Amino acid sequence: MAAAPADEPTPPLLAARNIIKSYGGVHAVSDVTLDFPAGTVTAIVGDNGAGKSTFIKILAGALQPDEGHLEIDGRPVRFTTPAQARAAGIETVYQDLSLADHRDVTENLFMGRELTRGWGPFRVTDGRAMRQQAAKALDELNVKIPSVKQEVRKLSGGQRQGVAIGRAVHWGSRVLIMDEPMAALGLQESHRVQDLVLRLSERGLTQIVVSHNLDHVFTLSTRIAVMRLGRLVGVRPTRETDHEEIVRMVAGLADRTPATVEGAPVAPAD
After folding, report:
1. Average pLDDT estimate for 229-244
2. Rounded distance, CA 199 to CA 233, Å?
3. Nearest to 17 by CA among 59, 53, 47
4. C-alpha to C-alpha distance for 30 and 184, rounded to whole angstroms
5. Rounded distance between C-alpha atoms, residue 130 and residue 142, angstroms
6. Which among 38, 46, 43 has a CA at the least distance from the CA of 14?
7. What is the pTM of this model?
8. pLDDT at 269 over 70
């Protein structure tokens, strides 16, 4: 009797394969291949101009690569708009948060996706249902705000960040991308956002965090991907590295030996 075939490895939830993006003669992203396994928190770090922002915009559907492709659960996908990425479960919280300051918390959570009640063409916005769902969603994430009827402009920086993250999670995202989630926040509010990210990690949400702050990176992440001059120069499990190694990789001073982490090929440092 023939031996049963070995189980095939589970493909990563999200993967980038040989991504290239150029602007004229400038290679913003150069042949980047990187897996994002389910439930991991991947921090993407690098100096200004390393290609981090361009790369996450490609993951979020805001930009299209010149070459290469994305995969979800091992299947190739192509996003031509952020809406297509959101439909696939990829939500992004950019540094500007994209909140409507003069709308209340509920309106921000449901903007463009309002709940209605009624029959056929005779439908009206269901404000009560939206307020109830908004309060429940934020309460589950332990996001403390005075009221879901509060205008967003009157909230603190940490509360605004919590609302933006809560909106992304509420819509069932499989992958949450956050660009500098603690930029310009005070120490106490930074701790609140850190707690929120860790809570989402415990719930098994796959997260991608872009940050310049290595203290935050080491607190939040399970793995660290370093980009330099558009290239991925290394990926390290957070528990198996330290600040010094990551700083050397960012500066291009690390070992030039190619590394392989979790099955994803990594180019040698420039």
Report:
1. 96
2. 29
3. 59
4. 30
5. 18
6. 38
7. 0.84
8. no
